[in-house]
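ESCALATION

Customer reports they have been waiting on this structure for their group meeting. Please prioritize. Original submission:
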Amino acid sequence: DGVKVLLSGEGSDELFYGYERFARTARILASCGDARSTIDHLYFGGGFHTRRIVGELTGTAGEGAEATYPWQWLEKHLSLPLDDLQLLFSQRFRMQTLLQRQDRVGMSQSIEIRVPFLRPELVNYANRLPISQKFDPETGTTKRVLRQAVKERLPREILVKKKDGWPCDMVVWIRQPHVRQLLNDLVNDADSFSRNYLNFPAVKALIKDHFARQSDRDVLIWELLVLEMWHRSAQRHETLVH
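Update from on-call: job pushed to the front of the queue and completed.
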């Protein structure tokens, strides 16, 4: 009928303990001494370790987090087993970003994308399973029950293959000399976002330390670059409008 439909595996990691970061975070959470620290790690995720430098750049980092619905949800459900809490928090909040991105990609190409793993019946079933059926800490095997379900249909090399995610050469690209020059040109401009809205000496120190390999701030450098490019584009648009 001319209707194009794709099937996506989105949601399987959030249901069946598919991310290795779940295990890493579980080890961190086991050493947290109080509820505040546990919620901090879950709420901020990988950004937990860069809050200090973000605070130096912006004058604030994470203010108002306690008033947000995700924080209050974590506070309310903190009595759940930590492994379960991770999976449920990921499904309820972080999953939304993935689904929004997927919907935009599909709609931009007039393609309907379905997510069979997120059928309510399957979600309810998966969330009733014990973690031991999803993850083996001794071997590091994720999505155990899913692998068992398809073991007669898939070759062994696929069943035992480690997760690749979506590899990207951004980390390599962003360390190239021409990218550093582009970033410095944007940041040092009199109308830059960094000069006018951020702690400019902290921005300069971040760039200097990163490219001198005294620190590894690839994500922050990338976000700073995109922010400056967006800011310049917005300024040009405003000039054209006026």
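Sent to customer with the following note: The beta strands are 5-7, 112-114.
Escalation resolved.
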